[in-house]
Design brief:
heterodimer, A: 7 strands, 42% helix, B: mainly alpha, 88% helix
């Protein structure tokens, strides 16, 4: 796999503790990187300024609009470049950069159009585990898709697949929405096991119970809108 | 006497409402449709104040027991409708704001190149 064919989208919101390490790890592997700073209010924007590499492109939302909006900006930016594969990668340091090759493999072998990295739930802290479990059930009920990890931040798409996926959700509900879009557009989805690194940062953010409930309310409204 | 008091207050509020609505329309702050809706609302307030039995008459036609019940039901429906409209409005605003922020991010980066 030529790392130049892969564009990594890193949505960032107040990640001053982890962002440098995450980007350095990705740069070491030679990937093309798109960072979307979703209106960070800590020192993240300042830290990002030090990356002046041709392979890194930084897009900045002037105010925080949520994970969904950041991913949408990232995907749109990635599609404007010559890239064959698009990967989304969380900035909180929970993913292992070595897993990028793993999630891209089914795409390169033409066995899938979209891949979702499946985290190991037995290692996950209980509070997060419950939140994810609820989100998986919600994804199953509302979109009719059974996945083992609907909220994973490590995803990979072929260029064509990424251009077909339409994102409307602005917040964390985007993860379920992407899965529903994969199904709606008739794309082949594959789940690949990935490593997850749990740090205090990864535990405090992401899909906890209250975020789960908010996503649920949004999903119901979305369904009502389609009626 | 007490009936007279609320009748007077009702008529006064109705008249103030009409004046304000017309003023806003003249200043171009409301559309003709919205003006008509407000005028109708204020007019019905005045009519009900002058003749409270009018609501009972309407309530009977609709099969609702008392005139007051009819007003309450209409008020609740009206309030929910306004809530719904405000929800949609805010959602649209949020969507437009997001679009603006995203567009700005993509454009700014283009200019850097």
């Amino acid at each position: 796999m030529n790392p130049r064919d892969v564009t990594i989208i890193v949505p960032v919101y107040n990640e001053e503790g982890t962002i440098i390490q995450v980007i350095n790890d990705l740069m070491d592997r030679g990937y093309d990187i798109i960072i979307v700073d979703d209106g960070s209010t800590d020192s993240t924007p300042y830290l990002l300024q030090r990356f002046k590499d041709d392979n890194i492109k930084i897009y900045r939302h002037v105010i925080n609009r949520g994970l969904g909006a950041a991913l949408r900006t990232g995907i749109e930016a990635a599609l404007s470049r010559k890239t064959s594969y698009i990967v989304t990668f969380d900035a909180d340091g929970q993913h292992d950069p070595d897993d990028i090759e793993k999630v891209c493999k089914p795409l390169i072998d033409d066995k899938a159009d979209a891949v979702i990295g499946k985290r190991n739930f037995s290692e996950m802290p209980l509070s997060r585990n419950i939140g994810n479990f609820i989100m998986n059930i919600i994804t199953l009920i509302f979109y009719g898709i059974k996945v083992s990890d609907s909220q994973s931040g490590l995803r990979a798409f072929t260029r064509t697949a990424a251009s077909k996926i339409k994102i409307n959700d602005r917040g964390y509900g985007v993860s379920s929405e992407i899965i529903s879009e994969i199904k709606r557009r008739g794309l082949r989805l594959k789940e690949v096991p990935i490593k997850t690194i749990y740090t205090p940062e990864t535990i405090s953010k992401g899909t906890n119970l209250s975020v789960g409930i908010r996503i649920l309310v949004k999903l119901i409204i979305n369904i009502l809108k389609r009626l | 006497m007490s009936r007279l008091l609320y009748q007077v207050i009702g008529i006064l509020i109705g008249l103030i409402g009409i004046t304000l609505s017309l003023k806003r329309f003249k200043e171009g702050k409301t559309s003709p449709t919205v003006l008509i809706i407000w005028l109708l609302a204020w007019l019905s307030l005045i009519i009900i104040s002058i003749n409270p039995y009018a609501t009972s008459y309407l309530a009977n036609i609709l099969g609702i027991g008392r005139g007051l019940d009819l007003i309450l039901i209409l008020a609740i429906i009206g309030a929910y409708y306004i809530l719904f409209r405000i929800y949609i409005m805010i959602e649209n605003l949020e969507m437009e704001l997001t679009k603006l922020v995203r567009e700005l991010a993509l454009r700014e980066s283009e200019e850097d190149e």
